[in-house]
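Pair request: fold both.
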Amino acid sequence: MASKQILIVEDDSDIVELLTIHLRDLGCEVTAASSGHLGLNAAKSSAFDLIILDIMLPGLNGMEVCRKIRQADRQTPIMMLTARSEEIDKVMGLETGADDYLTKPFSIREFIARVKVIFRRSEGHHSPEGGPSASSIMTYGDLKIDADKRKVTLNNVRIELSPKEFDLITLLASNPGKSYSRKNLLNLIWGYDFEGYEHTVNSHINRLRSKIEGDVSNPKFILTTWGVGYRFNEDL
């Protein structure tokens, strides 16, 4: 695995040390920040391949840090860590823009497995099931999706999407007319079974529609299959 730059924003020094040891075993270079403000400054001043972000942080909590990072950076994967296990925290973390979520205590084996999945996706080695190859370009009227560059344009204007929003539109657009349930989309896009969090998909679809649809109440590209989930318009 090529060397990756990782930012860990965590105030528990024992966890930082443990994660650092295992990430370095993968050939990663690790930067650590012990507060929300320090983590945010680090994320803004340097480029990282992955940000590991605790929710409970001094100064500025992880949710706010994630939100502020996403305002300026749509692409860098974010994995959130927390000692909390309530559903609302997981939903808020995912909807704030995190790509993955681990509840403490977690096994190092699971942590490393998830990190590797994130790296594979960011390198373009993973394409959604039934999706296009990394060099594919899909055009539907004024909407163009370049999977190689992870770029979406509408009327020749680039649309800024989060990693998950891009993965969603790529999967749907590569299989026009095929309906996906919310649970299917969670498993295919997030890569894990987030049983019970299907409404997270709704939030991502709503944000995606707000960016590409001229009229979100009468969408042209991403349609609702009532009682099932969502599909890309096969008539374009």
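--- second member of the pair ---
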Amino acid sequence: MEFLSMDEQVKTENSQLIDVSLLNPAVPEDEKRIKEAFEDRNWNEIKSADSWVVFKVMAEFVEGFDKLAKIGPCVSLFGSARTPADNPHYKTAEDIAAKLVRHGYGVITGGGPGIMEAGNKGAFQQGGKSVGLNIKLPFEQHSNIYIDPDKNINFDFFFVRKVMFVKYSQGFIVMPGGFGTLDELFEALTLIQTKKIGRFPIVLVGSSYWTGLLDWIKGTMLTEGNINPEDLKLISVVDTPDEAVKVIDNFYSKYLLKPNF
């Protein structure tokens, strides 16, 4: 087998091959998981292991439903865990959460640091409902101190956590963030587009941050026919806390708030 140098294997616009293992080598724990995916298991091993996973998933759903069933109208606030407290986005998220509480909403975040902490802080300091849906991760994630003790829930499974975000939220405000934030944004968009939940408002905060993504959606995704023009109307883009909360208020000025499903 002929081995290529890093320079030969890293892609340029005209090259045909990327050696992903060189760009993102697996750590030992990853290698173990990858090898396990190819191992043959007998039926007893499969049934035993998968049965425990089912029970853990059920337990997380039960805890989430039990703690959130009566929280009332809330808005989910998404954003990066890496945003420091001296970043303007942190202050914007804190102000948005405070205004939401003053307008009668509770605030749901991912329960961690950064934008999530800012959201919980704004809600907590205004005496509003401050919900944290925390996820166990190897880095970054830990519960912030501004979550109501009876509304701080820890999850192992991302998909259970995302169900709680959409089931008990009457709107979604999305601050600048990374892959996790985009995952949450497109989860909400997909569920609304496919009519699995109602047409709840989705507000992107920070036009300079989101313009590139929106341009690609309009110029590529829409042009290729992979979405409809009407789908673009699911998203509002704002730059200030007042504008963000106004979108939520305007939407619900004519609706009765209730859990989504």
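Observation on the second member. The first strand starts at residue 74 and ends at 78.
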